[in-house]
Amino acid sequence: xxxxxxxxxxxxxxxxxxxxxxxxxxxxxxxxxxxxxxxxxxxxxxxxxxxxxxxxxxxxxxxxxxxxxxxxxxxxxxxxxxxxxxxxxxxxxxxxxxxxxxxxxxxxxxxxxxxxxxxxxxxxxxxxxxxxxxxxxxxxxxxxxxxxxxxxxxxxxxxxxxxxxxxxxxxxxxxxxxxxxxxxxxxxxxxxxxxxxxxxxxxxxxxxxxxxxxxxxxxxxxxxxxxxxxxxxxxxxxxxxxxxxxxxxxxxxxxxxxxxxxxxxxxxxxxxxxxxxxxxxxxxxxxxxxxxx
Length: 293
Description:
The protein is an alpha/beta fold. It contains 11 helices and 12 strands. Strands 2-1-3-5-6-4 form a 6-stranded mixed β-sheet, with helices on both faces. The two termini are about 20 Å apart. It comes from Blautia massiliensis. Belongs to the shikimate dehydrogenase family. InterPro entries: Aminoacid_DH-like_N_sf, NAD(P)-bd_dom_sf, SDH_C, Shikimate_DH, Shikimate_DH-bd_N, Shikimate_DH_fam.
């Protein structure tokens, strides 16, 4: 067996809780080996109140970086030394890069969403968008699309505490990205949803609707789809949600699931750590060959 761990090996990790199910160690370690980089990647179960100690350990062990999952994303944003423009607006971090002791927080979820569309020939620049949801994934993609030049974004969320969060995000974007018009509506207003989708170029679902075991749920009536619409889901399990299936049946321009978003947000983090493009094709091939082993 090839010996990869040496006295010089740099450490990266995933922090959050739970992390035992994560595919990140396999993906990053494959990529480090592919590029012959002297790094190793692990996963550590860290609760929210342990975040400050975990960041101290990052500095002490001179770790190159960490990915961050729930429930630590917001706490990390409060504790790092610097935030990227998107992470600052969102108030959450999923990637920490250790720049010689200075911990810089980034959020790559939105980057993954935009890249997933780009890989399918769709650019968000100048587009009118409808986003369903105002949780973590929805907020990340909303902010990134605004930063990347979307013309307008209409956010629809149920009448719950996240609706106020959406209004807060809209206010921040009005200051930071005034060229992108962001509006917020209650999801109960189905007439408004129909009207906005009719005029939209891109419809994105950033909620858990459609995710197993709720794969029989969709927030959009199939009569709202039109042939010029691009439909994108953040849900990746199942690979095709009910919304994506019905959009395809309705003959939309493009309908994609969230698996690509997951891959490309990881690739964006990899580039922040290494400066290199993650070998995504090679990793997907490796994954397919080893599935079920």
